[in-house]
Amino acid sequence: MMQLQDIHHGYRQGGIFSRSRRHPVLQGARLTIGTGECVALLGRTGSGKSTLGRLVLGLERPDAGRILFDGAPLTDFRGRMAPATRRAIQAVFQDPQAATSPRFTGYEVVAEPLTVQGEASRDRVAELLAEVDLPPELLDRPAHRMSGGQLQRLCIARALATRPRLVVLDEAVNSLDLETQARVMALLRRLRAQHGMAFLFVTHDLRLLRGFADRSYVMQDRRPVEVADPFGPGPLPPVLQALRDAILPEMPRPRLPAGRAVG
Amino acid sequence: MSPRALSLLALHLHDGEHALVRDVSLTIRRGKVLGLVGTSGGGKSLTTLAILDLLPPGVKRVAGLVALDSQPVEPATLRGRIVGLVQQAPRGGFNPLVSIGRHFLETLACDGLRGAPAWEKMQGLLAEVGFERPAEIASLYPSQLSGGMLQRVMLALALARDPLFLLADEPTTDLDLVVQARLLDLLEALVQRRGIGLLLVTHDLSVIARLADTVAVMDQGRIVELQSAHNLFEDPAHPRAQALVAAHRALYA
Ligand SMILES: Nc1ncnc2c1ncn2[C@@H]1O[C@H](COP(=O)(O)OP(=O)(O)OP(=O)(O)O)[C@@H](O)[C@H]1O
Ligand SMILES: Nc1ncnc2c1ncn2[C@@H]1O[C@H](COP(=O)(O)OP(=O)(O)OP(=O)(O)O)[C@@H](O)[C@H]1O
Ligand SMILES: [Mg+2]
Ligand SMILES: [Mg+2]
C-alpha cells in the first residue's frame, strides 16, 4: 500500500542568518507497509524516525526518491495530496501539545475529521473517547486544560475516528500509564482485525512490539533496516543490539544501605 | 546549613468546579529518590508544578504549604537555584525564537556566569546529558531538535544552576533506551554524589525500579499508596498499585 523508494532527505540547520549547510537525515531509505500490516520503526533518538513519518504523511517532500500510495505518487508535482488519500492516512504525533489547538474542546478536536464526512455527533465522539478510556467530561474541556496523557489519547481518538487505512503512531503511547497503554494497544489490535487498519508504529520501547508488530525496521546509518525477529538470537544491526541491551530490569535490585556513595 | 528536605503539605487544587488534587503531602529528601506514579490525569503534573507555584491558568491552590526543613517558604522563590524543574512537555518550556545556546547563557547569567566560563559550563552540561558535539546543539533552535534531544536539553538547563532538588516530570519518556539508561545513570550520580533530592514522575515502572527509593501512587487526585520501591513491587496494597504492577509485569512476560 505504501512504498518508500530510495529516499534522501535532510534539513538546513542553524539560524536563518548563520552559514547553514544541509544536514542529511535519510540516505537511500526504503520501507514498505502492506494493507492491514503493522510495521514497527525503531531507532535511536535523532535518527530520523519522525522525519520518515512526516514523509509518509506527505507533510514534507523528500529531497530525492519516490513515495507511492497504492502504486501512485503520494503527492502531485506541487506537493499536494488527493483528498481521499489525505483522509486515508492519519497520524498521532509525539508531541500532542503541538498537534492540537489549545482552545479547542475535546469534542472539537475529535470531531474535526468527522465533520468533513458529516458524521460528527456528540454521541459518536463520546464513543470514540470511551475507546481510549476518556470520560465524557472531556467533551467540553479545552485541550490546554488536560493532562499530557489525556491530550495524547484525544489525539489517538481523532486519528482513529475516520477509520483510516494507515495510521502513523509516532511514540504515541509512551506517555500513558501502563494500564491505559495496554488498553490502547488492545484497541489498536482490534481495529486492525476489524477494519484491516495498517500502522507505522514508531517507538523506542522494544517491549511494546512483542505480539504487535508484523515486521520491524531499525534505523541504522540513516536508513531503515528490516530485522526478521527483534527478539531473536541475531545477528542484529548494532543499533538494535544496543537498544536491546539497554532494556531495564523488571524489578528493583537490592540497593546499598542508605547514604553510601558509589564510585 | 543547606536544607535537607523539601515538603509539600496538604495540597488541595481546584478548577472552580472540581477538586483536582486532594490532600496531597510529599517529602523529597536530599540524596534520595521519590517516585510518583499513577493513572494518567491523576494529578501528578499539577502536584509537581504546585511545588514551584507554576500552576496553569484555571487551576487554584485552595490549600497547601511548601516547606524547606519544615520552614514554610514562598514556592516561587525556590525556582532555579534551589529546585530545578523538567516539565512533561519539553517543547513548551522553550522560546522558539531563541537558540539553545542563548537559553543557557540567560539561565547561567542569573548566577553571574558570563562569557567563556558560561560557555564552558554549557558545553559540560550538554555533554553530561549525552550530546557528543555540544557546540553544534547550542547553535540550533528548539524546532530543529527531535523530541528526545529537547528532553535532554531541558534536563541540562534544569541542572545549570546546581539545584539542591530536582523535579523531573516524565524526564525519559521521549528517549531511546540507550540514552535513557545513560540519563538514569546521570541522575543516580547526582543523587548519590551531589546529594540532590529527586522527585521522579514517570509512568514507567522499570524507571522506578532502577532509581526510586520510595514510591507514591496517585489516583484521581489522591495519594493512594506510599511505600518503599521494593515493597511496591513485592506487595502492592491498593488495587490501583496492584494493577500498575501487573501491567508492568505483563511487558516482560
Ligand atoms: N525542522 C528541522 N530543521 C532542522 N533539523 C531538523 C528538523 N527536524 C528534524 N531535524 C533534525 O533531523 C534529525 C532527525 O530528527 P527526527 O525528529 O526525525 O528524529 P527521531 O528519530 O524522531 O528522534 P526522537 O526519537 O528523539 O524523536 C535530528 O538530527 C534533528 O536535529
Ligand atoms: N489548566 C487546567 N485547568 C483545569 N484542569 C486541568 C488543567 N490541567 C490539568 N487539568 C486536569 O487536572 C487533572 C490532573 O492533571 P495532571 O496533568 O496533573 O495529570 P497527570 O497525573 O500528570 O497525568 P498524565 O500522566 O496524563 O500526565 C486532569 O484531570 C486534568 O484534566
Ligand atoms: Mg521523533
Ligand atoms: Mg502529567
Structural write-up:
- The complex is a heterodimer of chains A (263) and B (253).
- By secondary structure, chain A is α/β, with parallel strands linked by helices.
- Chain A has a single domain (27-245), classed as P-loop containing nucleotide triphosphate hydrolases (Rossmann fold).
- Chain A is 30% helix and 23% strand.
- Chain A has eight helices and ten strands.
- Chain A has helices at 49-56, 83-88, 96-99, 106-116, 122-131, 148-161, 178-195, 238-245, and strands spanning 2-12, 22-33, 38-42, 64-69, 72-73, 89-92, 166-170, 198-202, 215-220, 223-227.
- Chain A has a six-stranded mixed sheet with strand order 6-7-8-3-9-10, with helices on both faces.
- In chain A, a hairpin with a 2-residue loop joins strand 4 and strand 5.
- In chain A, helix 5 (122-131) crosses helix 6 (148-161).
- The longest helix of chain A has 18 residues, at 178-195.
- Chain A starts with a strand and ends in an 18-residue tail after the last helix.
- The model of chain A is unreliable at 258-263 (pLDDT under 50).
- Chain B is α/β, with parallel strands linked by helices and 253 residues long.
- Chain B folds into two domains: 30-61 and 74-82 and 163-253, 3-Layer(aba) Sandwich (Rossmann fold), CATH 3.40.50; 95-162, no CATH class.
- Helices cover 37% and strands 26% of the residues of chain B.
- Chain B is built from nine helices and ten strands.
- In chain B, the strands form two sheets. Chain B has a six-stranded mixed sheet with strand order 6-7-8-3-9-10, sandwiched between helices. Chain B has a four-stranded antiparallel sheet with strand order 2-1-4-5, with helices on one face.
- In chain B, helix 2 (100-109) crosses helix 3 (115-128) and helix 3 crosses helix 5 (147-159).
- The longest helix of chain B is centred in the C-terminal third of the chain and has 17 residues, at 177-193.
- Classes of the chains: A alpha/beta (263), B alpha/beta (253).
- At the A-B interface, helix 3, helix 6 and helix 7 of A face helix 5, helix 6, helix 7, helix 8 and helix 9 of B.
- The complex binds adenosine-5'-triphosphate (ATP) (2 copies) and magnesium ion (2 copies).
